[in-house]
Amino acid sequence: MIEIKNIYKSFKQKDGSDLTVLNNIDFTIKEGEFISLLGPSGCGKSTLLNIVSGLEEANSGEIIIDGSPIKGPGSDRGVVFQEAALFPWLNVLENVKFGLKNKGISESEINETALKYIKKVHLSKFKESYPHQLSGGMRQRAAIARALAMNPKILLMDEPFGALDEQTRMMLHYELQKIWLETRKTILFVTHNIREAVQLSDRIVVFGTQPGRIKEIFEVKAARPRSKNKGYLLELENRILNVLKEEIEKVMKEEMGDEYHFEEGSLPWDPDRDMGSHI
Ligand SMILES: Nc1ncnc2c1ncn2[C@@H]1O[C@H](COP(=O)(O)OP(=O)(O)OP(=O)(O)O)[C@@H](O)[C@H]1O
Fold it and tell me: Average pLDDT, stretch 82-102?
C-alpha cells in the first residue's frame, strides 16, 4: 500500500519567488491497484511521481510504503519514463541485464530472468538489437522489461506512451493490461490522455492546476480487456472531460490572456476525424 500524505511541494523560481506546484495531495493506493494521475500540463503530475520514486523531495508531507516512510529511491519502485532511458551502447538483453548485476545472483540466473521479461514484452527476436535499431514502441517495451526484471512491487510510469503513434499506443495498452493482470504490480501511471487513463486504470486521480491539487477521483468499473465496454467508457471519458474543461481553460488563459474562451461547437466537427481525447 502507498500512502501519499499531505504532500506540499514548491520550486524556487529564477526571480527568487516560490512556485507552489502541489498543495495538500492526500490519497492511498492499494496493493495491486492501477492508478492514473490525469491533468493539464504543468499541474504537478510528474513532480508527484518523482516524489513517490524518491528522486524528488517534498517540502512537507510523506510517502509511506507498506508502513515505512520512504527516504529516497529504492528497489521496491521501478520507473519507466516517456523516453525509454536505455543505454545506447548496450543491446536489449544487456540493457535488461544491467540492473540485475547488483542483485547478487548468478550470471545464468541474470540471463534467465532477463530473457523471461524480454519474452513477456515480445522482444525475443530483437534481444541483440541496439536501441537505435528499434522503433519507439519497441524501445518502450524494452524499458518496461528492464523495470519488470528488477521485480519491483511498484511500477511508476511517467507518460510512457506519450511519444508514440496512436496504433502503437493502443497495442501497448493491451500489452500493459496483460502484464498487469499477470504480475499484479501496483502501478502509478502519469498521463494527460483521458482515453488512456480510462482504458488502463482502476481509479483516475484528476488534478486541478495552479497549484496542483486533487479535483476528483473516478473509479473505472469495467472488466479487462476493456475495448468491449465502449458505451460506459465513452460516457466516463465525457464526465472526466467536463471536470477538466475548467482547468484546461485556466491553463489556456494563463498562456493566451483573458480573451481566450473555449466555445463548444465552434470547431467544424467530423466524427471520422476524431483524434482521441488528448487534453
Ligand atoms: N526542478 C524544477 N524546478 C523548477 N520548477 C519545476 C521543476 N520541476 C517542475 N517544475 C515546475 O513545476 C510545475 C509542474 O511540473 P510537472 O512536470 O510536475 O507537471 P506535469 O503535470 O507533469 O506537466 P506535463 O504534463 O506537461 O509533463 C511546472 O510549472 C514546472 O515548470
Answer: 89
Lowest mean pLDDT among 138-142, 160-164, 205-209: 160-164
Alpha-carbon distance 110 to 107, whole Å?
A: 5
* Cα–Cα distance measured from residue 80 to residue 143, given in angstroms and rounded to the nearest whole number: 6
Please report, rounded to a whole number, the percentage of residues in the chain having pLDDT higher than 70: 90
> pTM (2 decimals)?
0.86
Domains of the chain, CATH where assigned: 2-76+153-229 (3.40.50.300), 84-151 (no CATH)
Query: 247 phi and psi, to 5 degrees?
Result: -70, -40
Residue 252 pLDDT exceeds 80: no
- 23 C-alpha to center of ligand 1: Å? 14
At 155, the pLDDT band (50, 70, 90 cuts) reads very high
Q: Taking the CA of residue 74 as centre, how many other CA atoms within 13 Å lie in the half-sphere pointing to its CB? A: 13
H helix count then E strand count, the chain: 7, 10
Give the end-to-end CA distance of the chain in Å, rounded to a whole number: 30
Res 269: pLDDT: 52
Which atom from ligand 1 is nearest to the alpha carbon of 49?
A: 18
Whole-angstrom Cα distance, residue 261 to residue 250? 10
The pLDDT tens digits of the residues spanning 207-217 come to 998 788 999 99
Query: CA 39 from chain center: how many Å?
Result: 12
Residue 154 gets which letter from DSSP? E
What is the secondary structure of 205-227 as a DSSP string? EEEETTTBEEEEEEE----SS-T
Q: Is 86 in the pocket of ligand 1 (CB under 6 A)?
A: no
CA of 118 to the centre of ligand 1 (A): 32
Shortest-distance Cα residue to atom 2 of ligand 1: 11
Residues 6+ apart with CB under 8 A from 98: 87, 90, 146
